[in-house]
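Justification of resources, computational component.

The compute hours requested in this renewal are based largely on the per-chain cost of generating structure records like the one below. Each record pairs the submitted sequence with a full structure-token output. That output is archived, and it is also reused by downstream analysis tasks.
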Amino acid sequence: MTASSNFSHENKLKGSALLKEWKKFCADPKASGKRLHFKTGYISQDGRITNHDTQEFNKELARAMAEDTKVRNIKEAAAIETFNKIQNNSSNKYNTHAKNNKKARNIPYLPINKCALYLVKDSISGDVKIGISNNPKERYKRFFSEYNVGSIREISTTWFPSREEARHWEKNFHKRYSFKHSPARGGKEWFTLNESEIMFFKEWMRRSSEKRSFKVIKLETKIMKNDDQLFKDYRNNFLSGFFISIFTGVIPAISFAIFQIPIGLFIGPILVGIFCIRKTEKDLFFSKEYGEDGLPLNINVPKREYKEMNLWSERVLKIPAYTLSNKKQFPKKLEFDKNNNLLMRHISRD
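The structure output for this chain reads:
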């Protein structure tokens, strides 16, 4: 019989004893999760850690944390209730005054039921959760019993005037990262994001709170097609015009009626193809966006979300036509002179 088989239900640590072992585990970066389960008694007799053991451990740990912070929670709840009463009374007085005062009717009502959009990270898997709550700190405490996670670290939080608005942005980002959903954590709000995605999401949250615009410079130019590109476009446009007119049947019929010879069936479609050739664009139009640091805009920047919040500030600069011969010659970084004019010498022409 192994040492682990000596554990019974009565040997499992609970309350403050379990919480003490948990704090030791969190403080030691080299600590073993299996060792923690063994010391606390949440392990099967054959020395394996089953899903049942993990769930039981998480539930008991959450209960221990709740007991440990019971007094503080009561005080916090009382303080929050008092604050909300004061805030609501102040807001109601302000809003009533705004309704009755003609000069103040254009002043917006004060928000009462604000709600937070939060971004937190699981220390074990590295997955992040995007959610909303009127009290994020209290919401985090229930993660141990609801999800398959370790300790939680808050990355960022931004507040909105109402729960409806916070939920709108929550759904927005859930949809944006839907292809990176992480079902292993449980629920629908966990995602496996890379550091770049987390960084730009965090920046969006900060700018949305500060109502600070994301400034972008967009370069536009016209590039002349080379001979190969022109030939392909001429050929494709001619064939498109020719076969579309053939399949309609109207143009061949008119053409035959005019020329009264069998080849007349094809003269009309050929003329349509030639017309399409003459309409072929000989230039290509390209554009490229750059961030505030002068570097090309990262694909992980939540562009659509900035635009929806009216925080997208775009400045368009036009490079003289035919300065570049292909889109690869756009500058790797933008530089400007003292008068804020784009330095053209940094644009490659090779």
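The longest helix spans residues 70-100. DSSP finds twelve helices and seven strands in the chain.
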